[in-house]
Amino acid sequence: MPASPLSPARPSPPSPAHAGPVHLRRRLGAFHLWGIAVGLVISGEYFGWSYGWTAAGTLGFVVTTVMVALMYSALIFSYTELTTSIPHAGGPFAYVLAAYGPVPAFIAGLASIVELVFAPPAIALAIGAYLHVQYPHVSARAAAGGAYVVFMALNIAGVSIAAAFELVVTIAAIAELLVFMAVVAPGFSWANFVHDGWAGSDTFTLHAIPGILAAAPFAIWFFLAIEGVAMTAEEARDPQRTIPMAYVAGIVTLMLLAFGVMVMAAGVGDWKALANINDPLPQAMLSVVGPRSGYVHMLVWLGLFGLVASFHGTIMGYSRQIYAMAREGYLPALLGRLHPRFGTPWAAILAGGMVGFVAIYGDRHITVGGQPLTAGIVTMSVFGALTMYVLAMGSMFRLRRMRPDLHRPWRVPGYPVVPGFALVAATLSLLGMAASNPAAFALYAAIMATGVGLFVLARRHKRQAVMEKGAAMH
């Protein structure tokens, strides 16, 4: 029976080459955690979100983004209470295990893995697309695969190195987004921004509402995975203090950048030309400064910092989620091993990378519900996130009732309204997305059902083996 996440986390099995158990190491301060929180997400400001214009138009997408930003604000305040009460590398898996037990916990953990494992291939393909703008002879897929090799190795090399790198590239990415907004500002026109802004119409009608709802996954992409900083709770110094600081500063930073980039990019020309591409910011800048401007080359190069920050951060996130579930016996034990020298979950890092390589090289052959694979895996990642959000928010209410004695260094303001809003918004977003993206939801449901079915069978087999062993001893 897996250990309760409310008890001290069990160490990883010792390596044969190491005399004792290997532990995750507490080396991260509030500034590092802020860098991880923003870095996990900041690629969402560079690409992915513009697909939402196709469904909702620019003005419709503003409405979608406002609703999603409110949901994430409520979610992060609520999530902070869970993370500081149960500072466990398993994140939502640990919260749901404490509240509901093993099977719901596995569902939450698997959904989080889907979110964090499916996001990196989309980001890696965007990295390849950015490099292809600069060097047309460079294959986008080869560049994406190379990014996986480099950043998996960096993550294995140690959490201090990885977190310091994440902080540097995140700051550079923020600076570059500010430069982008300043450079395109002279070419901004409100008329460009509002033209056909309501799902292809200049005026709002009820026909715009389905598009506003369908654009939800791409607005969520602006904030997706900020909760992943919870996966580093066992590596944070004084997590009850540093994690709330990182969460609150992180969500404020991301909201300011998201709205600034979205509005400025849409107002510099024909926003429809940017709606279905992986590199909207360089293309928007091209329309203002021309192809020979040094600003475009600067944006391509420095824009890579944003993509790299999120790519690197999501590798950190998925590896900790896989590691924590394997350590507790919910995934194969091999995935719960830490490197004997660096103390990093090397097996979990490599396992998620294998999924990424399959997605990258399947891009030219696969569509999901008529969407390009990049848009499809963004949608799949969002399905995983929303499933996990619903279960995590439910866990918060249940733990308040079941464990009123649980030490809570941070209590969500406005309880129960704020977490209730987050729960309802996440549930409605999940249902709305399922209705708008039936093919992607069917694939996601099949992945989840297969994983849960295998988990239940494995538990039953293990329970039966224990009973048979006990009977044999008697």
Automatic annotation (TrEMBL):
Membrane-spanning parts: 31-49, 55-80, 92-118, 138-157, 164-188, 208-233, 245-268, 295-318, 342-361, 373-392, 413-435, 441-458
Protein origin, superkingdom: Bacteria
Principal location listed in the UniProt entry: membrane
Keyword Transmembrane helix tagged: yes
Keywords annotated in UniProt: Cell membrane, Membrane, Transmembrane, Transmembrane helix
Places the protein is found: Cell membrane
Membrane topology: Multi-pass membrane protein
Record-linked Pfam families: AA_permease_2
The UniProt record lists the keyword Hydrolase: no
Name this protein carries in UniProt: Ethanolamine permease
UniProt organism field: Gluconacetobacter entanii
